[in-house]
Amino acid sequence: MSAASSLLSEEQFLCSICLDVFTDPVAIPCGHNFCKKCITQHWDISVKCQCPMCKKLFNTRPELHVNTLISEMAAQSRKSAQMKASSCPDQRCAKPGEVPCDVCTGTKLKALKSCLVCLVSYCETHLELHQRMTGLKRHKLIDPVEDLEGRMCKKHDRPLELFCKTDQMCVCQFCTESDHKLHQFVPLKEGYEGKKAELGKTEAEIQQKIQERRLKIQEIKHSVELSKEDADREIADSVRVFTALMQSVERGQAELIETIQEKQKTTEKQAEGFIKELEQEISELMKRTAEVEQLSRTEDHLHLLQSFPSLNTPPHTKDWTEVSVHHSSYEGTVRRAVAQLEETLRKEMEKLLEVELKRVQQYAVDVTLDPDTAYPTLILSDDGRQLNHGDVKKNLPDNLERFSPCVNVLGKQSFSSGRFYYEVQVKGKTDWDLGVARGSINRKGIITLSPKDGYWIVVLRNGNEYKANPDPPVLLSVKTKPQKVGVFVDYEEGLVSFYDVDAAALIYSFTGCTFTEKLYPFFGPGLNDGGKNSAPLIISPVNHTD
User: Fold this and answer.
1) H-helix or E-strand containing 510?
2) Confidence of residue 328 (pLDDT cuts 50, 70, 90)
């Protein structure tokens, strides 16, 4: 048998369907040989019963019998190939994690390539036919992979050779004539290149997202660093202020106690002098009393008469009727000490407000007026930085953004995060509104200027009446009439603060606000009032002082 098999080439023991050495070879009436399983499956899915090689048609499916002789010769050929592979020192057994050769029996050698047509992985020895035979050279070889069964159509048991663009899936040739009939198909390579291009785009998008998130991480870290700097600065300021206050309290307390104690010492010293003087007089009087008592008991008539003149006259003493110890008064002492403490606190508050104003000025932004929101009687400068009320109503389109009939206007710029600050000159005015407003505010008809309606503002009325507009409004007390007002907003903190810039004083702060949409600077110059309120509101450049 060995001699017989050696006379035949290895190609003669290959099934033309699976392209592997015969397994249970059978001969059909035309004389061609196939693996029993291969020809059976071929006829199961084929419409006609014919030979895959010569295309001879059979009216009835031939009865199949295993050809014992060819089977034994194929087994011998397989055994010979295995022995040849095992004797090759350059090949090695497949280790865990490596793809084994599907042809090797017994000890599996490491696969060198996988065939996408045969759906079989081959070691170097079994790969030889693909490198030598003209028909097999056209097969697509790739680096070895394990899941070759996944490359077979589960319905037709044929290689997945096409990509259905309609259903976005890989199909075999038979699928194009059945489930995917009339669909659009491209070769796997073309589908691969298209999807690879999409993957490249997806990868680029993912890389961009990664980069964006890395930048966001840097931004967050930077924000944390800035927050820490602010926290450290606030802690240092608080330590300085409270240390000064505690020192002032301790100093004031010590001075108060010392003053009270000095007054008490003066009172005690005066009382001690009076008591000493009274005790001396008592001593003198007691001495005279003893002398008088002794003289009154004498029986010597001459002695009594001679001594009487000197003893009958009382010793010289002080009139104590109007004399009293001065009782020190401490009324107002504590009050004056507390007033001094209040003065110290006021000075420290002034220093803090100066520092605070300088800090918020760092967030100065460029603000200009939006003419599309201005009521038609308002006069805006060409640069969008000055505003006053005129007597003539211009013919302007009544768009949704425009205030009517309220004489107000918004800034062009909007803010939906972070901090921003701007300053407005209000010198010479008797009436004005300043602050920020939500973008969704009602701008038509009667407007309620309150936070619940989207307005956070401070107003001046009648030349000297300052109000903030919470519900209900708060009447404000200012030491000096502001000539320039600074407006500061911390969006995330929910803070809106108003400053008297020249006096470096806080006018009012809205705290605990909740902002969920864009905020716009809000301006109201008030009515002209016959020229009494003709001075303009002027958006001023921020002077960053040292």
Assistant:
1) strand 505-510
2) low
Dihedral over alpha carbons 108, 112, 115, 121 (to 10 degrees): 10
Give backbone dihedrals phi and psi of 487, rounded to 5 degrees, phi first: -120, 125
Q: Residues 525, 389: contact at Cβ < 8 Å?
A: yes
Ordered strands of the 120-122 beta sheet: 120-122, 113-115, 141-142
H or E element that contains 203: helix 188-296
Cis peptide before 472 (omega within 30 of 0): yes
Q: Are 486 and 361 in contact (CB under 8 A)?
A: yes
Give the span between the Cα atoms of 387 and 167, in whole angstroms: 65
pTM: 0.54
Are the C-beta atoms of 61 and 39 separated by less than 8 Å?
no
Specify the pLDDT at position 124: 86
Contacts of 211 (CB under 8 A, 6+ apart): none
Q: Which residues contact 541 (CB under 8 A, 6 or more apart)?
A: 423
> What is the C-alpha separation between 459 and 442, in angstroms, rounded?
19
* Cα distances (angstroms) measured from residue 161 to each of 176, 188, 384: 11, 6, 69
Going by their DSSP bridges, the two strands 409-410 and 120-122 should be labelled as unpaired
In angstroms, the Cα distances linking 76 to 3, 83, 349, 447 are: 10, 10, 104, 101
Backbone angles phi, psi at 467, to 5 degrees: -140, 145
**What are the φ and ψ backbone dihedral angles of 277, each rounded to 5 degrees?**
-65, -40
Q: What does the DSSP assignment read for 253-317?
A: HHHHHHHHHHHHHHHHHHHHHHHHHHHHHHHHHHHHHHHHHHHHT---HHHHHHHHHHHHSPPP-
Query: If you search the block for the tokens 């600050």, which residue do you land on?
Result: 421
Average pLDDT over residues 317-333: 78
